[in-house]
Task: structure prediction
Amino acid sequence: MQASVSNLSAEDRERILTQSMAHFRNPSGSDLLQRTERFYGFIQSRAQHGLWPYSRALEAATGPRTTISDISEARREGLNFASQDYLGLCQHPSVIDAGIEAMHRYGAHSAGSGVLLGNTRLSLDLEQRLGEFLHMPHVTLYPTGWAAGYGAIAALVRPRDHIVMDYLSHACLQQGAQAATPQIAQFKHNDIADLRAKLSEIRAKDVRNGVMVITESLFSMDSDTPDVLAIQDTCREFEATLLVDVAHDLGAMGPGGGGALAAQNLSGKVDLVMGSFSKTFASNGGFLASQSPAIKQFAKYFGNPHMFSNALSPVQAAVVLKAVEIVRSAEGETLRQRLLKSVGALRQDFLSHGISCYGSPSPIVPVPFHNDRLARLCSRHIAEQNVFVNLVEYPAVPVGEARLRMQVMATHSPEQACDAVRRIMLARHEAEKDLSKWMT
Amino acid sequence: MRPDGAELFDAVVALIRDLAANGILPRDLATATIAHTSTLESLALDSMGKMDLLAALDERLGIYVAEDKISPDMKLGELAELLFSRQRP
Result:
């Protein structure tokens, strides 16, 4: 049962519609436990009005349709555009069989770090197969994609070195950079000229130390891709090393599933590539890949998330290994074509309603609102329409640019995509009516 | 008694200096010259810095200002006036 808006003061209404999580990131006071209460109150006040679309749980297998529960334990069955299982492999019979077989053969647990006795034959095979797929034979595995981004940077960069990163880089990259060096510069999103200016400034003062340039092959809030060749060439000109995060596109896009790097004919030609298994490869886990066995060993022993975490479980390694095999097969090509067909239907249908989704076609479809209050209100009505999508708000995106991040899977049909658009437009209409009530 | 505009301006400056001294805002703001005409941009407050300032104003002075109500070119004097207008009766 949702609380009534009419009982709220104007200030409370404004808080519920505009306050962000960032508002609570630096609480003051001596009591570390008590000072969490204000944030908890914020969550509760939004939840009472059905405006907390986070921390929902699956009550059934993920798929184009599923059942979820929200934080008030309310259950809904509906269309799922909030899961990142881009080729739908988490339900693939061969993938499930591979996981079961690994469980029977090795048990449930890796029971050790990858630098001790945590590896299995499966994880070693995964390193090799992934290396072949990436045309970068030396692969280090990490327990999550986040750990791979953080660990790769923390392993290779020292405080005297420099980092120049796209300012929209993922949190794992930002935090890895902050852990590695205080000398961090950000370049404007996908702006080669600004990157060049930053590198030129650094090299004018420091030719002795390292520079790492960081970008992504598919940005997850905007669905856009940089000119990686131009970035790599710029790096070479200034003796900088390029790290590209391929988490969202590897396997799901590009020739042979090689992502934007393959589409730009850059497979195996970038200095360092890191990525995650959690989008297309049906499991947790991440990796760093390069052409050098020395980099692989250095990253294992000096990248703390690898050394001080347990290795991927046998089930995770087996699942990803099978997923890589499917991604590289004719079946993988068919799945990618199916995925792009539904992506196209979704974007085209929004366009027919006057909404131009950000970026270019990829499994991520960012739907703009240009009104953060409306987006927050709409999230409730979308759930009531039994469509599950992720609301992305400040600070994940700038103030005024809240959006829906829809994630499409090969298992969605174009008809389901169009049904979702129809329901979202109905929800938006309801939210517009709601907004006037909240703003009075 | 509610603080007037001048008192609120002084409170904002004191808060900026305190946040800077604690490493939440750029440390040089602890001693920098801060005037009524200083803009948030001139104080090198990025998006998160502005949010940290607004959150501290809310937590310590009990005055809430939404992030989308302020712009980088807003002067601190204007922010104090906005805070004055938004005090609870």
In short: Residues 46-80+330-439 of chain A form a domain with the Aspartate Aminotransferase, domain 1 fold (CATH 3.90.1150.10).
